[in-house]
Amino acid sequence: MHESLAPALHRFVAVARDGHLTRAAERIGVPQPTLSRAIARLEGELGVALFRRSGRGLALTAAGRTLLPRAEAALAELGAGVAELAGDADPVTGRVALGFLGTMGTSAVPGILREFREHHPRVRIELVQVPHAALLERVRDGRVDLALTSPVPDEPGLVATPLAEEELRLAVPSGHRLARAGAADLAEVADDPFLLFARGYGLQGVVESWCAQAGFRPRRAFEGGETATLRGLVGAGLGVALLPAGPDVPGVVQVPVRSPHTVRTLGMVHAADPRPTAPVRDLRAFVVRHGPRWLAEHG
Q: In a 10 Å sphere around its CB, with 0-12 CB exposed, 13-18 middle and 19+ buried, how is residue 216 labelled?
């Protein structure tokens, strides 16, 4: 019954409003015998009579009067949902949910969106800025149409497109022994307190992996979620950190890392949906075409 419930309710409401099978059949464009059989089938499945004969027409029974307002409300809600989907899919005014890491929110994402708006000024874009693990979860369940994140996952059901690479540097306090070094090996800070990204952030596992390659496990001093916060903690002399290269901050020196190669891949991730809406398809194509430039320059 579930598959045929919406059309059955639609036909029931039509007869209830007209009080006459023939007139209702003409109004909704179905043969009168088809409509009669549909009402009889609905009554059989529900186990109650919905109509009784009244002169030449039909009147609702008590059960029919109970069902009518609920059927009308259900159909109205269904219609609103269909209209909303149609609006979201409209190629000119549709909606796209774009997710991204916080490190991309200062320049890269605004730049991408500004250029996209020049070609699609009325598309509605919902921005979602959450950590890497939460971004992937929202892509999987459909709440985010595309995400700019790192590391780029390799998992069934997701399509990942590498776009750019981002260098991470060793951030040390200005009074640190390596502050004047032109470059350093990561192993040189094996005994220093480390400021690390919290669990759920993509860089948490990446940084720990690089430390492992350098032969040590980082001595955790503090955890944080935002690059700016960790950079501030470095400036306060509370430890060292591997952070995306950024603007100079008082009290912090960014030292290039010789070994290991502390570069991560930034990419776009979306579900392997066979029929994305036009706005989603357009933004994905735009990001593939123009995202590498913005992420490389401003990621």
A: middle
Ramachandran area for residue 215 (φ above 0: left; ψ -120 to 50: alpha; else beta): left
- Report the phi/psi class of residue 81: left, alpha or beta, with left for phi > 0 and alpha for psi in -120 to 50: alpha
pLDDT band at 3 (very low <50, low <70, confident <90, very high): very low
| Residues 19, 23: Cα–Cα separation, whole Å | 8
List pLDDT tens digits, range 37-51: 999 999 999 999 999
pLDDT band with cut points at 50, 70 and 90 for residue 135: very high
CA angle at residue 249 from 245 to 250, to 5 degrees? 150
Q: What is the 3-state secondary structure (H, E, C) of the chain?
A: CHHHHHHHHHHHHHHHHHCCHHHHHHHHCCCHHHHHHHHHHHHHHHCCCCEEEECCEEEECHHHHHHHHHHHHHHHHHHHHHHHHHHHHCCCCCEEEEEECHHHCCCHHHHHHHHHHHHCCCCEEEEEECCHHHHHHHHHCCCCCEEEECCCCCCCCEEEEEEEEEEEEEEEECCCCCCCCCCEEHHHHCCCEEEEECCCCHHHHHHHHHHHHCCCCCEEEEEECCHHHHHHHHHCCCCEEEEECCCCCCCEEEECEEECCCEEEEEEEEECCCCCCHHHHHHHHHHHHHHHHHHHHHC
Distance of CA 172 to the CA centre of its chain: 35
Question: What's the CA angle centered on 68, arms 66 and 70, to 5 degrees?
Answer: 85
CA 193 to CA 52: how far, in whole Å?
82
Is the predicted pLDDT of residue 299 greater than 90, yes or no? no
Q: Which amino acid makes up residue 179?
A: A
Residue 181 contacts residue 254 (beta carbons within 8 Å): no
